[in-house]
């Protein structure tokens, strides 16, 4: 028989050891459609065909050849993922983070869960959220009442609790199996942090769908749920709940600054939350509520109440950087309205420095920079031109660039035309009333420019150049500028002219040293805040101390054995070569 070699042993896939006797291998090919064994061949000849990786992965065509299929893969090799399944997986993956936050008492895991909300909200729908809630809770779980409230808020109250996903939908009808599954489900407790996290997702969904009234009512329900609990692991989550609670109230009619706005009615709730947070040393909620109250008072122009709030409360030192930036911005705005421009400038400068550099916080950076530019102009300073050349700021700050140019030149007519042209933009930014104060600064700047250009100039010429009503107004403005130290000059009322004094060397004054001192102080403050913000593992110093003590004890024991002669250099193994 051709191909039959008695001294050769068959191996896998029909191969033979020793390839020199394979001349007649043409006769060994099996027919298509068979199992790999030719009729009439010896029983010793076997061809092993490897099994398919998946059932139904191989299909026979008309010729009997095997066609390989690619399961659920695109041409590039990437697996297609259902967005609904991916969103559910992202939501449920945060439950593990919340469990670890409670077990380890570490707020960083809660912060990671909250950071994922921004990516989840882009794919979140009422059906996906309802499915996540129904798969998380059962009708007998402790949080069933909260789950029912969540489903009612998103309009999916008909969805039953306890629904399982995937293959778990096909539950065995045997009572034993069902009892085991039920026991396993009841054994896993749903912590309150999961309730509040799903509530935050519900708030986000209602906010994105612009359901303001329903969102406000649900936020009150969620706040009542949080107030019944006293858990420090809920601090970061409760701060976010109060944030959306205030946001819903701001969108309801009548809108601020009306005194009938719903934001006035939520102040007692926020004040009570602040009082509770201070007593419980809840840093996150305390910082968030203080910022919300300041924003609330500023929206209705209650500046005195905002000032009282700042004077009677202490903002927590270890608050989150985002909350610190918001607090400094609102505090700077309050101080600017109170004519305390130096304090306002310091607060707004710190707010712009602490603002996040990512694209998500671009709006805050632009708003804080606009207010900072106006405050600098009110202080008599001219902002740096590089501020307006930033790619992310150039378009938003263009009206303010025109304003700065008019103030720098001292052209009162140009200033008034710019204010009239871009008045709507300034009102929308909340800087219009502060910009109206710049009229006197424009006049002072013009007087300063003329005092530098002319050694003596008549009041009539000042009146004509600054477009003032009369020479008496020019005389009053020049006298006030001399008294405020804007210019160094003398006023001759009899002859009706202003005579400038000779300017000395600015480096002979204290101004350069004071500027250098301010910059050094800002750098040292930034260094101190960076050191305070550093995080270290808990009880790590005790572990290092214990390891150091054990190392010293081993060294003493080995040194004692060396002195007694029990150890020699070979036994040390080179560890004590320096001794």
Automatic annotation (TrEMBL):
| UniProt-listed SMART domains | PAM, PINT
The alphabetized UniProt keywords are: Proteasome
Which GO cellular component term is one of those annotated? Answer: proteasome regulatory particle, lid subcomplex
In this chain, composition skew of type Acidic residues spans: 564-579
Q: Which PROSITE patterns match?
A: PCI
Superkingdom of origin:
Eukaryota
Q: Where is the PCI domain?
A: 325-505
Q: Name one Pfam family in it.
A: PCI
Q: Which GO terms describe its biological process?
A: regulation of protein catabolic process; ubiquitin-dependent protein catabolic process
Q: Where is the composition biased (Basic and acidic residues)?
A: 1-11, 20-45, 173-184, 549-563
Give GO MF terms, alphabetically.
enzyme regulator activity
Q: Which family does it belong to?
A: Belongs to the proteasome subunit S3 family.
Q: Which PANTHER family match?
A: 26S PROTEASOME NON-ATPASE REGULATORY SUBUNIT 3 (PTHR10758:SF2), 26S PROTEASOME NON-ATPASE REGULATORY SUBUNIT 3/COP9 SIGNALOSOME COMPLEX SUBUNIT 3 (PTHR10758)
Q: What is the official name of this protein in its record?
A: Proteasome regulatory subunit C-terminal-domain-containing protein
């Amino acid at each position: 028989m051709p191909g039959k070699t008695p001294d050769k042993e068959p191996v896998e896939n029909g191969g033979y050891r020793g390839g020199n006797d394979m001349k007649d291998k043409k006769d060994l090919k099996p027919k298509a459609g068979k199992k790999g064994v030719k009729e009439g061949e010896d029983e010793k000849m076997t061809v092993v065909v490897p099994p398919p990786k998946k059932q139904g992965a191989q299909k026979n065509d008309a010729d009997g050849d095997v066609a390989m299929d690619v399961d659920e893969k695109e041409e590039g090799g990437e697996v297609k993922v259902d967005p609904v399944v991916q969103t559910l997986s992202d939501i449920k993956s945060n439950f593990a983070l919340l469990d670890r936050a409670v077990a380890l008492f570490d707020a960083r895991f809660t912060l990671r869960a909250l950071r994922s909300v921004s990516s989840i909200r882009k794919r979140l729908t009422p059906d996906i959220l309802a499915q996540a809630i129904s798969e998380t809770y059962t009708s007998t779980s402790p949080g069933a009442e909260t789950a029912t409230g969540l489903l009612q808020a998103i309009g999916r109250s008909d969805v039953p609790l306890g629904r399982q996903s995937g293959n778990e939908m096909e539950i065995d009808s045997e009572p034993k199996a069902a009892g085991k599954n039920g026991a396993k489900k009841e054994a896993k407790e749903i912590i309150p942090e999961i309730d509040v996290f799903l509530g935050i997702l519900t708030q986000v969904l209602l906010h994105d769908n612009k359901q303001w009234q329903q969102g406000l009512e649900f936020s009150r329900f969620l706040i009542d749920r949080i107030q019944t609990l006293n858990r420090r692991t809920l601090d970061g989550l409760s701060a976010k709940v109060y944030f959306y609670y205030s946001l819903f109230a701001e969108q309801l009619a009548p809108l601020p600054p009306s005194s009938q706005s719903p934001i006035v009615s939520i102040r007692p709730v926020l004040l009570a939350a602040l009082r509770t947070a201070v007593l419980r040393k809840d840093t996150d909620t305390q910082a968030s509520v203080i910022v919300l109250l300041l924003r609330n008072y500023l929206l209705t122009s209650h500046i005195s109440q905002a000032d009282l709030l700042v004077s009677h409360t202490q903002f927590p030192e270890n608050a989150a950087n985002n909350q610190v930036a918001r607090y400094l911005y609102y505090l700077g705005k309050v101080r600017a309205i109170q004519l305390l421009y130096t304090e306002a400038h310091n607060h707004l400068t710190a707010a712009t420095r602490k603002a996040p550099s990512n694209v998500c916080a671009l709006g805050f950076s632009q708003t804080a920079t606009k207010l900072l530019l106006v405050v600098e102009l009110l202080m008599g300073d001219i902002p740096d031109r590089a501020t307006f050349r930033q790619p992310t700021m150039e378009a938003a700050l263009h009206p303010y660039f025109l304003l700065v140019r008019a103030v720098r030149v001292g052209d009162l007519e140009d200033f008034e035309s710019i204010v009239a042209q871009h008045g709507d933009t300034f009102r929308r930014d909340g800087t219009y009333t502060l910009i109206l104060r710049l009229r006197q600064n424009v006049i002072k700047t013009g007087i300063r420019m003329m005092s530098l250009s002319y050694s003596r100039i008549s009041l009539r010429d000042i009146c004509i150049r600054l477009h003032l009503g009369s020479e008496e107004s020019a005389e009053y403005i020049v006298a006030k500028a001399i008294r405020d130290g804007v210019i160094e000059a003398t006023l001759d009322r009899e002859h009706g002219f202003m005579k400038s004094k000779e300017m000395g060397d600015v480096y002979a004054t204290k101004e350069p040293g004071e500027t250098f001192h301010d910059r050094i102080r800002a750098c040292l403050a930034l260094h101190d805040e960076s050191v305070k913000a550093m995080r270290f593992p808990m009880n790590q110093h005790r572990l290092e101390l214990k390891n150091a003590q054990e190392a010293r004890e081993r060294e003493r024991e080995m040194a004692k054995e060396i002195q007694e002669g029990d150890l020699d250099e070979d036994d040390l193994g080179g560890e004590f070569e320096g001794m």
